[in-house]
Design brief:
Helices cover about 35% and strands about 30% of the residues. The strands form two sheets. Strands 3, 4, 5 and 6 form a four-stranded mixed sheet that branches. The model has no long low-confidence stretch (mean pLDDT about 85).
């Protein structure tokens, strides 16, 4: 560490400055894939027309897991989201279910915009791509299939 001494012009007292350069550059910040996945999952769910995230199978397994104590709401936030995070960039794959009657192209575009804005704002990572797979359409009178619980 380097010390430099200068005098405060108003009080004429010595000011000691330790280190050097911008404090924001002293050290390294890493962001886990799961952090980016949570941000992206929440941002995607905010878009009108997105009924759910993930395929029918992953939602069914998630519903079963959510019923088990300690089964985890945290995992439901990242359901249908996969992130690859590098030092300065990230790429995302999302799987969504859309509401019947909405424009899939418009919903996908809005999801892409919302996810990119949220991830870049919160992480300062550059989002190089957001791939969206629409795995299902939610029909209004279609009931969500609830898995039968083997637990009583």
């Amino acid at each position: 560490m380097t010390d430099s001494t200068r005098t405060d012009q108003k009080t004429q007292t010595p000011v000691i400055k330790r280190g050097g350069g911008d404090p924001a550059t002293r050290g390294r910040t890493t962001i886990a894939d799961g952090v980016v996945e949570k941000i992206a999952g929440l941002a995607a769910r905010d878009v009108v027309g997105v009924y759910a995230m993930g395929s029918g199978l992953s939602r069914t397994l998630g519903a079963m897991r959510d019923r088990v104590p300690g089964g985890g709401k945290a995992t439901s936030v990242t359901r249908g989201v996969k992130a690859e995070v590098g030092e300065v960039q990230t790429a995302l794959d999302l799987e969504i279910v859309v509401d019947y009657g909405v424009s899939i192209a418009d919903v996908a575009g809005a999801v892409r915009e919302n996810v990119i804005a949220a991830v870049e704002r919160m992480t300062s990572l550059e989002v190089v791509e957001v791939n969206i797979a629409v795995s299902d359409v939610k029909v209004p009178d279609e009931e969500e299939e609830e898995p039968e619980s083997r637990l009583q």
